[in-house]
Amino acid sequence: GRLSFSYFSSENAKVHIQKAEVQAAASKLEPAASSRTVRLGMMMKEVQARCQHVLLLEQSEGTSLCPNALHVIRYAVAKADNFWGSWSILRFSKGASGMLLPCAELDKLADFVLENAGVASFESLIDMWFSKDVASYPQLKPWQNHLPAGQQLLYRHNLIQTQDLACAASFVLSNTLLKDNAFHGDCSQAADFSPCHVVPPEPFLIFQNAGDKASHSSSSPSSAKDLANVHEFDKLPDERHIVSGELGVDCESTCTAASMKCQEDLMDIINNCDALKIAFPGQCKSCSQSEGNDQPAIDVDAGICLTKAEKKGFTCKASHPKTRRACVCGTDGAA
Questions:
Q1: With contact defined as beta carbons under 8 Å apart, do 218 and 203 qualify?
Q2: Are the beta carbons of 316 and 251 closer than 8 angstroms?
């Protein structure tokens, strides 16, 4: 509400708020909720001609972008463009925060939101719009020729930290009209988008630098690095991080995909249960000493975090089809 652009004129605000108040009285919607929807709708109208994508992030206590979130979003946009071609929304968290919308789609969506600001919450209006279910939601009937043609996509790992949802936590959308857009039990552990049944093109390119040159190539989503898996560990030197790899992927590829270099000489520092619990939050049911060049790692099916019994022979190049590796990666400044 602090922006002072043309669409935020007092006259525009007055008209929309008055209409929303009348609707809210009939729908029993809280006045604060309808005012919030008006503000969000007006914001979308204002920015739609000035941007390529817009990410919604509400200002509330305990809410913030997760570390590396912008890198992950760039990866996700590139992947969505490559896999689906046409998409209308990417969701990275619950609620309004974490909705990424192509600005080309905002104009009619904003009109719909403002027209119905007192009918339902902003989140419910968004769900109505993307459900495209005119039969169930009569509010959509005047807009049926403008409903989105692209796919709605849900990213598996939360990128907006809130008081009840941690960074990188796996989640499904709750209280949504789009039940089929949640992750289901038949989704592979390597799937990072829903719907998860889409067969990727080959090769899939992730663009990570300002020149839009392909910095990493992968034939499947399982080997494409999810940068949300970069973790801090206080026993590592500066500019070194724990990076949890994908299933069956070695540390050399994992670090390269995160624009870092593998630091095998530091792997003994994370060869313990405490570090593995940071690398794989909530996934280590138990810890066990083992022996394998892919360790330290987690046995995904068993939920067992594995530490290497022999404290030498760590390598960046080993992998195992049933484990995800915990890697030490360094940024450009790391030796």
A1: yes
A2: yes
| Helix/strand/coil (H/E/C) assignment for every residue in the chain | CCCCCHHHCHHHHHHHHHHHHHHHHHHCCCHHHHHHHHHHHHHHHHHCCCCCEEECCCCCCCCEECCCHHHHHHHHHHHHHHHCCCEEEEECCCCCCCEEEEHHHHHHHHHHHHHCCCCCCHHHHHHHHHHCCCCCCHHHHHHCCCCCCCEEEEECECCEECCCCCCCCECCCCCCCCHHHCCCCCCCCCCCEECCCCCCCCCEEEECCCCCCEEEEECCHHHCCCHHHEECCCCCCCCEEEEEEEECCCHHHHHHHCCCEECHHHHHHHCCHHHHHHHCCCCCCEEEEECCCCCCEEECCCCEEEEECCCCCCCCCCCCCCEEEEEEEECCCCC
Residues 242-270 pLDDT 10s: 888 888 999 998 888 777 889 999 999 99
- Could you tell me if 151 and 100 are in contact, meaning their C-beta atoms sit under 8 angstroms apart? no
> HSE (CB half, 13 Å, CA atoms) of 218?
23
Structure tokens at 195: 């719907």
Considering the entire predicted model, what is its pTM? 0.60
Are the C-beta atoms of 188 and 196 separated by less than 8 Å?
Answer: yes
Phi, psi of 227 (to 5 degrees): -70, -5
Say which residue, 233 or 255, is predicted with more confidence: 255
Phi, psi (degrees; rounded to nearest 5) at 10: -60, -30
Give the pLDDT mean for 82-100.
85
Instruction: Give the up-direction half-sphere exposure of residue 129: CA atoms within 13 A in the CB hemisphere.
Output: 29
* 259 within 8 A of 265, measured Cβ to Cβ: no
Query: Average pLDDT of 70-95?
Result: 83
